[in-house]
Amino acid sequence: MFKNKKAALLLAALVIVIAAGVGTWLFASSKDKESAETTPAAGETKSLSQQFYIYDTVVNIKIFGDKVSQQNMDDIQAILERMDMEFSRTRKGGEVYRINEAAGKSAVKVSDETMDAVKKSVEYAKEMDGLFDPTIGPLVDLWNIGNGGDHVPPQAEIDKAKALTNYKDVIIDEQAKTVKLARTGMVLDLGGIGKGYAADMIAEYLKKQGLNSAMINLGGSSIIGLGHKPNGAQWNIGLQDPDQSRGTQLGTIQINDEVIDASGVYERFFMQDGVRYHHILDPRTGFPAQNGLKSLTIMSPNATDADALSTGVFLMGMDDGLKFLEALPEKVEGFFITDDNKIYATPGIKKRLVLTDPTYSFGN
């Protein structure tokens, strides 16, 4: 969990991943749940890769190690499916679904994982003064951006949904292992940390199996470069140009045992009266943020933290967001891309970014 020194604190954005030593791009394809084992040449390391469709996105996993087997991929699939079921707002029988059905009525007993995710979400909300809010579900449902929503809702409906958004009304009983929403109509939404949480669980599982070199890519927006490449080199991450088609990069960054997580305004949106309305909703206004930012990329040791930060810090805007990130004691870095193609970065990530598109330049 991160702490601010002042306060004691289907894809949001695409990131291109250059796979270890083979120069391939890990993008979505028509293949689903199909694994590929690479037979190593003399002196090379065995690898196994597999793609899944879950969390309404494509998940690519590539594991390196002489001990890797299909059982590892089967175990990862089970983790993903369990998390998707527990955290889904729409899958009947899932724990978050049941919490929402019981809103304003009764507490719901939950698993250790759901309890942990809800606790983390509420802590993030406190540390970011409610800009990250796991009860934003009524606004998400109202706007429905990316799932058919294509117009601005009436102000009265926005006000009604906004009034139901307040993380302080999540009642957690750790001893009883229950979660309750205080008011009828509230909707818990763990989408702000769901992919990051799952990515962390996969990384933890692999480490326990003695597999310490892997690329974990959940939808291009939550990526872990576990350990190093088998040859000891860092993972090379290509960063998506927010103004171009998928696969067009503006630059690269190398990571090892780190997470890259991005949020942006260009994947899910609609246009009305010349205004772009995207999926990153501000709980203060009930509207998509209009703060001059195209995207925010977070680099962190922890995917769950990075997932939450990429939303909450985006809503802070560039100036306050930079100050917030720089005040964090943990090894957290980030960079913003503004509407005028300027990149504003924290010092630790700025020196590692390699820009390849001349239309972008550093603003700080």
Fold topology:
Layout: E1 15-18, E2 35-38, E3 47-54, E4 57-64, H1 70-87, H2 95-101, E5 108-109, H3 112-127, H4 137-143, H5 155-163, E6 170-173, E7 178-181, H6 194-208, E8 213-218, E9 222-226, E10 235-240, E11 249-255, E12 258-264, E13 269-272, E14 275-278, E15 293-300, H7 303-316, H8 318-327, E16 333-338, E17 342-345, H9 347-350, E18 354-355, E19 361-362
Parallel strand pairs: 17-19
Antiparallel strand pairs: 1-10, 2-3, 3-4, 4-8, 5-7, 6-7, 8-9, 9-12, 10-11, 11-18, 12-15, 13-14, 15-16, 16-17
Helix pairs in contact: 1-6, 4-5, 6-7, 7-8
Keywords: FAD, Flavoprotein, Magnesium, Metal-binding, Transferase
Enzyme class: transferase
Binding site for Mg(2+): 192, 307, 311
Report how far apart the termini are: 28 Å
The shape is globular
Largest sheet: 10 strands, mixed
Strand proportion, as a percent range, falls in 25-35%
Write the CATH fold name of the largest domain. Answer: T-fold
